């Protein structure tokens, strides 16, 4: 947004300079037309003179004025050419600035779209995280109840001493394996004696 504002300020400055130079160009063209009119007027005066002496004096004056006017016209034409060249450069700069403004606006639009997409993904991920946490808490609660029942069933068996402290999963597994092994041994013993 800052880049766009800066480019728009530059664009306004360039357009202001362009208007000022066009105004100066019109002024120069107006002066050039006035000089040309003066030159035509002097030529008309020269044609209307009848006396030779006045003709000669007027001829010298007209020649001097013509020389001065030609010099002024040449200077005005030179300035006009410079103004035209400057106008072309300013128009080119204005076009570039307008293109940069459009490019910056397009990039800003794309960034906003990307930001909106990221925001939407973040909200979706937060929702999924919340659902996962709820599911994890549910599974953890069920696992703890199941583990508690296994410990209760294992250590309520005859011959097993109740635990004195918190049990690890390995200790619970060993206690269960011990009960299973003892039952298997007892089963084999009964089988050998033929007792069903």
TrEMBL record:
The keyword Coiled coil applies. Keywords: Coiled coil. Residues 4-45, 73-128 form a coiled coil. Transmembrane segments: none annotated. It comes from the Eukaryota. InterPro entries: CC-FHA_domain. The keyword Transport does not apply. This is CCD27 protein. It comes from Caloenas nicobarica.
């Amino acid at each position: 947004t800052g880049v766009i504002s800066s480019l728009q300020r530059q664009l306004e400055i360039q357009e202001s300079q362009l208007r000022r130079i066009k105004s100066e160009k019109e002024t120069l063209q107006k002066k050039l037309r006035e000089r040309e009119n003066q030159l035509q007027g002097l030529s008309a005066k020269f044609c209307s003179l009848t006396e030779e002496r006045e003709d000669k004096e007027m001829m010298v004056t007209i020649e001097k004025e013509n020389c001065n006017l030609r010099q002024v016209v040449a200077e005005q034409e030179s300035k006009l050419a410079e103004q035209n060249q400057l106008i072309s450069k300013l128009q080119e700069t204005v076009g570039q600035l307008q293109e940069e403004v459009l490019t910056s606006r397009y990039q800003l639009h794309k960034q906003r779209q990307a930001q909106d997409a990221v925001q939407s993904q973040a909200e979706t991920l937060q929702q999924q995280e919340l659902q996962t946490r709820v599911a994890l808490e549910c599974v953890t609660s069920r696992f703890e109840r199941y583990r508690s029942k296994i410990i209760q069933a294992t250590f309520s068996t005859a011959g097993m001493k109740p635990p004195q402290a918190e049990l690890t999963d390995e200790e619970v597994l060993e206690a269960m394996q011990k009960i299973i092994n003892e039952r298997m041994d007892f089963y084999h013993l009964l089988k050998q004696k033929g007792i069903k």
